[in-house]
Amino acid sequence: MERHVGTAPLLRVIAATCAALAILSACTQFPELDAVTEDTTRGADFLPFLPLDDLLAQTSAQPREDVPAIVASRVAALRARADRLRGPVLTSADRARLSGIR
Length: 102
Known about the structure:
The chain has helices at 8-26, 31-36, 39-42, 52-58, 67-86, 92-99. The protein has 102 residues and is mainly alpha-helical. The chain is extended, with a radius of gyration of 33 Å.
């Protein structure tokens, strides 16, 4: 009787090998990227990270009262733009010139 070896153990070995290679490549140094960094940015003072609670405390939660007017003006501008886009693309002179090309 011939015994058939399943492919599941082989797939596990391949998956484990790929995972090991991915983990090892994450530990790699990239000197090409370090060489791209300019000397001025290496010693620069970057902005500090701030806690989110402090940032939220600085904002005002009061709604703006001019929002309906802003939205209404944007709606009017978009409707006017849509009306302009609905018009003919070609002028009658261009249409006549192009119809004579056939």
